[in-house]
Design brief:
- Helix content is 64%, strand content 0%.
- The protein has eight helices and no strands.
- 39% of the residues are buried.
- The protein is an all-alpha fold.
- Helix 4 runs antiparallel to helix 5 and helix 5 packs antiparallel against helix 6 (161-182).
Length: 246
């Protein structure tokens, strides 16, 4: 993912188009940039970044639990079967943590996977042998790579203690899952999506992230989520290319 710059306007640059794109993508996650979604006990309202974390962790569990169970049953290698069972079991724990956090915060979170995630599960159901193992590792490793930087960005900027605690828990689980998937030796490193790095200087992405801390944040203060948008785009393309080679 290429580094993103946010402060300088260039000839032909259309900030309104970028803002509309950000709104559209966040809408698919069930939130609006800057929207005050729920009020925790202390009165501090959750912003779109907090809700993106809650929704993202919940959606990950909704499809990765059945994916892990499938791998435990039909993985060709003993390693994939072991890892599938481990990921399914740990996602049950993480899923309960995000449900508990959402209930505490009075926030609504998804109850079923997205259509795209259902498609990944169907893809796995239709595969077998070595191809199944490759699809399982590829899909889950790319998905974990997408949510990992989101967890860090929310942890760095949220004002809510419950969200911070969920970030800490999710960070441990996601890191462990990536390590387990990598231990299969099926990860195709040169073809993973590149990392999104903040632009240098005070006008870079880090400054935008630090500004994304209040309940009244608008599109301009949620530019940090352009990292997430880039991850979705490059991750999807990279996954398609990876699986075409299996």
């Amino acid at each position: 993912m290429a580094a993103l710059r946010t402060a300088r306007r260039r000839p032909g640059h259309h900030p309104h188009r970028a803002a509309l794109l950000l709104v559209a993508i966040l809408a698919t996650l069930g939130v609006s940039p800057g929207a005050a979604i729920a009020a925790p006990a202390g009165g501090q309202q959750l912003n779109a970044a907090d809700m993106t974390l809650l929704n993202g962790v919940r959606l990950a569990g909704l499809w990765e639990m059945p994916a892990g169970q499938m791998a435990a049953e039909k993985g060709q290698s003993a390693k994939v079967r072991e890892i599938g069972a481990g990921i399914a079991g740990e996602h049950q724990v993480l899923d309960q943590l995000v449900v508990d956090a959402a209930n505490k915060l009075g926030a609504s979170i998804p109850s079923e996977p997205t259509d795209e995630q259902k498609g990944w599960l169907k893809e796995m159901q239709n595969a077998s042998g070595a191809r199944f193992d490759q699809i399982f590792v590829t899909r889950l490793r790319v998905a974990h790579g997408k949510i990992f930087p989101v967890i860090g960005a929310v942890r760095a900027s949220t004002r809510d203690a419950t969200v911070r605690k969920l970030c800490d828990d999710a960070n441990r689980f996601v890191l462990h899952h990536m390590q387990m998937l990598e231990s299969t030796n099926l990860v195709r490193w040169p073809e993973l999506p590149p990392a999104a790095l903040p632009a240098p200087g005070a006008d870079g992405l880090l400054a935008a992230a630090s500004a994304n801390t209040g309940p009244n944040a608008g599109v301009s203060s949620t530019v940090v989520w352009l990292v997430f948008l880039a991850a979705l785009g490059t991750g999807g393309v990279a996954t398609y290319r990876l699986l075409r080679r299996t």
